[in-house]
Amino acid sequence: MPIENQILQTVYDTSPDAIIVIDETAIIQSFNKTAERMFNYTAAEVLGQNIKILMPPYFANHHDNFIERYLRTGERRIIGIGRIVTGQRKDGSTFPIELSIGEAKTTDRRLFAGFIRDLTEKQKVEQRVHELQEELIHAARLASLGEITSMVAHEVNQPLSASGTYLEVARELLNSNDENDRARGMKAIDQADAQIKRVGDTVRRIREFARKKTPELALEDINRIIEEANAIAAVGSKARGIRTTFDLAPQRPEAKVDRIQIQQVVMNLVRNAIDAMTGHDRRELILQSRLTEADQIEISILDSGPGISEATARKLFIPFVTTKKDGTGLGLAICRTIVEAHGGKLWHEKSSLGGAAFKFTIPVQVQG
């Protein structure tokens, strides 16, 4: 065998991709060593067989039609383009593959060479990375909740104490023979009920926020997400003298998002703003939402704190870089990951209140 042919055969057999050559009737003409390992067939077992032997039934039933259509019309569905499809091993198990096809013409026939890459390991790695990202995002939520645990106790204790007082008053009034006193007693019970429901709402929001779950995209009211996220993040902020103003889009825009993840972004940015304003005379927080001309909603969290220096701003979204004494440096990095996964972007600029403004966008659907 000439040296050139020996080199070509070596390249053919040692290629990291499976290489399979078929003719225009889909009969296998060549099957390299990588293909043998990938599909668990020997070349002797498949040569002369229809390529459908390497496909699950659904694809196999349509494959000959694909070739016939191409030979008749010249319309390319895979040839020269490549796509992700499913292969089938000798034992019947299936696996994802990346398939690219090249065409060669001789004087008397056409040949098609398939270059196949097994994507099983790649998909496993991608899945593991996705799982780790979910774990990290969940851990960040728990860390955020840990920071406000004592404030949650204060927020829950206040309405519980109030409800207890209302019930004591109701007990005395309901024992009276006076009809007006009894009516006042029933009103006190209603007031106690309202306070208990307030506690229930607080606990429900926190439990839902902390729950680990697979991301679920659904059409959500963005203004409502902002309001609920602030309700969790701002627990105890009144005690710090912080005044919060909502300036939300009147159209009630909706977006297909994972509600808990977007809540996490808002909550993290609000908590950062509250922390930044602690100890400052002016403590104002503004939460805004507005529709843009690019069919997006822009959400802004503005504070009246000291602002962020240019040197710090350049490193804001770098993981593990933090200006907080007990910070992890992951909050803003995770926020940016979440926003970008939703098709938006997150950035920082100077606030009109004199402090920092963090803004992010996500695509929206506007109700007609």
Describe the protein's architecture and organization.
The chain is elongated. Helix 6 runs antiparallel to helix 7 (179-210), helix 8 (222-233) crosses helix 9 and helix 9 (259-277) runs antiparallel to helix 11 (331-341). It is built from eleven helices and twelve strands. 26% of the residues are buried. It has three domains: 3-118, 2-Layer Sandwich (Beta-Lactamase), CATH 3.30.450.20; 120-214, Helix Hairpins, CATH 1.10.287; 215-368, Histidine kinase-like ATPase, C-terminal domain (Heat Shock Protein 90). Strands 2-1-5-4-3 form a five-stranded antiparallel β-sheet. The protein has a five-stranded mixed β-sheet with strand order 7-9-10-12-11. The chain has a two-stranded antiparallel ribbon with strand order 6-8. The model has no long low-confidence stretch (mean pLDDT 77). It is of the alpha+beta class and 368 residues long.
Quickly give the structural class.
Answer: alpha+beta
Provide the helix percentage. Answer: 40-55%
Number of domains: 3
Note the beta-strand portion.
Answer: 15-25%
* Contiguous helical run count: 11
Low-confidence stretches: none
CATH architecture of the largest domain: 2-Layer Sandwich
- Largest beta-sheet details: 5 strands, antiparallel
Gyration radius over CA: 32 Å
Task: Find the CATH topology of the largest domain.
Answer: Heat Shock Protein 90
Rounded mean pLDDT is 77
Strand line-up across the major sheet: 2-1-5-4-3
CATH homologous superfamily grouping of the largest domain: Histidine kinase-like ATPase, C-terminal domain
Label the overall shape: elongated
Alpha-carbon distance between the two ends = 74 Å
Using the coordinates above, name the CATH class of the largest domain.
Alpha Beta
- SSE pattern, N- to C-terminal: HEEHHHEEEHHHEHEEHEEHHEE
